[in-house]
């Protein structure tokens, strides 16, 4: 009995609520008519779908035809809830929009006017809306409303699966940097083709609407796919994200072609080459042959990736913030820029990057279209290589000692002997005492990421009194040789023809950077794996010379400096650049 009374009360309450809702809706409609002098032909039917309401309205026929062409007639006829901002006939460039390819029509126009869920407006509104193409829109107003400054002439037209608003024109599409990598406005086919060759679509299960499970597999009533590209992570540049702020240098096809011609000789490969393995300590090394399946593919891939390496800059970090305000024709006044791959490019070189380039604003930053990649080789695809002596004590496998018990020593400016000039890179060096009275120590430096190019090669020695003012100090005498693969891929071990002297002697008054000579490596090693050419140093002290020379070697590092950079530094001794390191 109590249950029946409760039911009657519920029915009565429902009747009251429905009556109140009807009154509110009626009053709201009256309010909108007062504000907009509405054309009643625009009013939608609450019982029809968004597509049925839009397609049956003569004032929205242009928009409806574009929806159908893009395949959104079916989507707006389904049960998923949407909000649509529908531009009236004659308020936008219909012929231009209609000429777009289907994919561009969908992304740049149709999805730019549709959002998931309901977004009615009333009272004061200041709201952010993400449309189907992930663009951030601003919906605001009080009494009269606008989305992205496009006026709403008839709001809140209800439908069975959402709401639509009639607007006075199309919503402008603002591409992000990733979307700008196309040939729509500039001749960017080359860089676009390379970047988009890594595109894949991945299902976004969180945004997709699940359907029934069939044969143990989940189906989706509405599938949402996200664009994914491995290059985002490779270059630490998520240029597809709307909430980011990047600057990207974008070379035209001509600039890309010229850059490839310039860079390609640095990456010559052979189908197979020999190297001495560096996985074991001491002198127990083996010769190994490496085979490359597709030499041309490797070369093309590496060259393209090198060209891309320093094109991206996060505007929120370091002095990169000055890129936000920089405009075409202006001179960049910044101490330095950091690319997203953490290459530091100092002021003069950074300024060159934007000379004669054209800025184009994007939704997540800006692109600078340039007819030339004005990068110096050593700032990007041909950097200086420094192998630290203390790498012997790491897992990198880039230093191998022979006939010595190696020690790692730590020196900071506060502990360094003030009578010794210079400084030690990384504050560490390797000390190589002989293991017996009858042997001289040696060390092998494996040289990673070598290009097929000419390097000026240096070794940096540390005197014995680096921290002690009273310690006896004697110079070192040593010889050097190279091991590398020649143009035919055969291992050449012990080559000394490139050196400027048969033996070298260190300076006891300084951390001494000793020039050994220039050498042109015939083949490149970048991208081939853990396979390196090597520089071998051996103490060269006879038993009769031990009172004159120190058999113990103390090495800070080995430097492979690109010959172009070495020449440039001689002409510009104050030049600042990002010194290499491994």
List keywords for this structure.
alpha+beta; 6-stranded antiparallel beta sheet; 13 helices; 30% strand; 31 strands; 582 residues; single chain
Write a structural description.
- It is a single chain.
- The protein contains 13 helices and 31 strands.
- By secondary structure, the chain is of the alpha+beta class.
- The longest helix has 35 residues, at 2-36.
- Residues 1-42 have low confidence and may be disordered.
Describe what is shown at a glance.
Helix content is 22%, strand content 30%.
Topology (SSEs and partners):
Blueprint: H1 2-36, H2 50-55, H3 61-69, H4 72-75, E1 82-87, H5 94-98, H6 102-110, E2 114-116, E3 124-130, E4 136-142, E5 144-147, E6 150-159, E7 162-167, H7 177-180, H8 189-196, E8 199-203, E9 209-214, E10 217-222, E11 225-229, H9 230-234, E12 246-251, H10 253-263, E13 272-276, E14 287-291, H11 295-308, E15 312-314, E16 336-338, E17 344-346, H12 347-353, E18 358-362, E19 365-370, E20 385-388, E21 399-402, E22 407-410, E23 428-432, E24 442-446, E25 454-461, E26 477-485, E27 491-495, E28 504-505, E29 512-520, E30 534-539, E31 553-562, H13 563-571
Parallel strand pairs: 1-7, 12-19
Antiparallel strand pairs: 1-2, 3-4, 4-5, 5-6, 6-7, 8-11, 9-10, 12-15, 13-14, 16-17, 18-19, 20-31, 21-24, 22-23, 23-31, 24-30, 25-29, 25-31, 26-27, 26-28, 26-30
Helix pairs in contact: 10-11
